[in-house]
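Page 47, continued from p. 46.
Same chain as before, 269 aa.
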Amino acid sequence: AAAVVVGFAAGVTFVRRQLKRGNPMLDVRLFTVRPFTGAVLVNLLAIFSLVGFLYFVSQHLQLVVGLSPLDAGIVLMPGLITTIIAGLTVVPVVRHISPHVVVPTALLLSASAYVLVAVASQDGSVGLLLAAFVLLGAGVGASETVSNDLILSSVPAAKAGAASAISETAYEVGSVFGTALLGSVLLASYQEHLVLPAGLTAAQGTTAAETLGGAINVASELPAGSGSALLESAFHAFDSGVVITSGIGAALMVAAAGLAFWSLRKPSA
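Result:
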C-alpha cells in the first residue's frame, strides 16, 4: 500500500513538472490526442498479452509436458513466424479498411487464443498450445503494426521522436505488467490449490509451494507414492492458475478491442 501511494504521488509530481517545462522530457500533452493515446494503450495491452502468455506456456511445455527448452522453443516458432507475417499482410488491408475496425478485430483474435487455453486447459496438449499461440501471434502482429503507424502519424512531425519513445516505453511497461500481474495471479492460484502430501519437511513444503519447478524437484526426492501425489497436485494447481490468468488475458484483450474501436476512429468533420 505504501508503494502504491508513493508511486501515485511521484507520478502526479512528474506530470505537473513536465507540464510546466518548455522542453519537457516527456510531453504528456500528447496524450490529449485520442488516437495517439488509444494506440499507445493498444501496444501496451498487446505486449501484455504476449508476454503473459509466454510466461505460463513456456513453463507448461517444459515442466508439465516435459519438453526440453529447445523443443519448447520450436513449438513456439510457428506463433512467432505468424506474428511477423501478420504484421506484413495487415499493411495493404488497412489501406482499405479503417484502423478502428482492423485493430479491434486483431485484438479479438488474441482474446480467442486465451479463451481456447482457458476452455481446454485440462488438455494442455502441445498442438493446442501451438494453435493458441498462432492465434495470439496473428492478433498481436497485426494490431501492433497498425498502432505503431498511428502513434507517429497522429502527432506533429516535430513530436515524432517523443511519440516513438513513448511507444517503446509502452512495450516495456506491458512486458513488466504481463509478467508481474499474470505471474502473481498464477502463483497465488497455484499455492491456493496445491495439496502437499504427508511426510514433507518444512523446507520441502516451502520449496514445493514456491513454484511448479520446486514441486517437481521435491517430488524427485520423495518415495514413489508421495512423489506421484505431489506431482499430480502440483500439475492440477498450475492448470487451475492457467485458467484464471487466461480468463484475465481474454478480458483485457476484449477491453482493448473496445478501446481501440472508440479511440482510433477518425473524428467527424
